Amino acid sequence: MYSLYYRLAWKLSFIGLGLISFVYAKSSTHISLMNDIKERNVLVTYYSAKCPFSQQFLKLWKGIDVHSLPTVGSGFASHLIDCEAETELCAKHKIKYYPSIRFHQHGSHQPQVFRGRRTAGTLLSFLGKAMLGSTVPAVEAEALGDTAASPPLMLDGVMELTDANFDSFTAGGPVFVKFFTDWCPHCKLLKPLFPQLAPLAKRLGVALGQVNCESQPDTCSKQAVPHYPYMALFGHGRRLGVHEADNTIENWQQFLQLKLQELVADRAAAVSEGVLENWYSIVKPVSLTWSSFDKTARSTEFLFVKFFAPWCSHCQRLAPVWERLAQDLAQEFPDRQQLVLGRVDCTEEAGLCNQQGVRAYPSLLLYQQGHLVDSFRGLRDLAALSDFLRTAIGLRSKEQRSEL
């Protein structure tokens, strides 16, 4: 009799724990999220099931005892939002990376963003302070920065590079990188100046990155950084040049323009000698937005588009291949009215990606005169992509001629 009672009690206790976890970590929609914010404190985790960093965080979150915080009480809820399923909701809240963790105080639609190392201790510390109504200082959040494998975080147009993502991010290119330390006085002077280069760098097709050599010592050791600050241009996994003049916007601009001209000249010489090097090319895929997509698709016969997310490791590996594909095809299809290679960043253009039915990254879709006609699902190497595209264009052009 007693043994049966204890067995039932044991099972009911697990059912109760399951109900509690459901209440405090539930999949969400816009309506349920807004309703909860009106009634209690809310922690929101925006994630993608395909993102490995999201998967790591969700495992961590399951093991955290939020009720250990005296400030929690009954006025707390946790929402998990899958951005693959709730693309409009994630676009509405301007989610740029996964997982993105935000805390809403009771009744407030302006969240505090968690940017610390994704550990139980730092997350509980963040929650404890946020629930007491104190804002976590930006300096503290940066000091807790995640040195584990995580997608590059962009702040003011500059990517925060780590030991885990430096090689993959500089495998494409070009990337202008600042190596620094917090104690270096010259580095402190550059801190507000370097982000001002972002608009110019974007026009030149150059990404900006920075490495804190105190928290990311392996990268700085590997790159043999001799002093701070140290400024260097990287591309396709190699160092392309070191900036040695005074650190000003004007000098950086001259350095980047000169190096890019040298790379284009080197590429032209390699082509004339029959050797095509995998360096920065003046021929680049076209970046498409909501406003330019339809116009570009209608103005060219074939448009081959890569829909991607910067945090996606498969997309990072594809990036240099996609640039090389554009470079090769530009020689075979010089007429931009016949073929254009495009790229769409789905963290910036979530609405466009949703409209085109993109559900996985990368998605490689082929359009003909503005209509989706095919998608690529093979090996993402240069030969397979080239064969797919040439075959698709040849067959469809032949069909079109036969119809005439």
TrEMBL record:
Task: Indicate what this protein is called per its UniProt record.
Answer: Thioredoxin domain-containing protein
The domain of life is Eukaryota
What GO terms fall under cellular component here? endoplasmic reticulum
Q: Where are the transmembrane segments?
A: none
The record places domain Thioredoxin at 130-261, 262-394
Keywords of the record: Signal
- One BP term from GO: protein folding
Asked if the keyword Signal belongs to this entry, the reply reads yes
Q: Which family does it belong to?
A: Belongs to the protein disulfide isomerase family.
- What Gene Ontology molecular function terms does this protein carry? protein disulfide isomerase activity
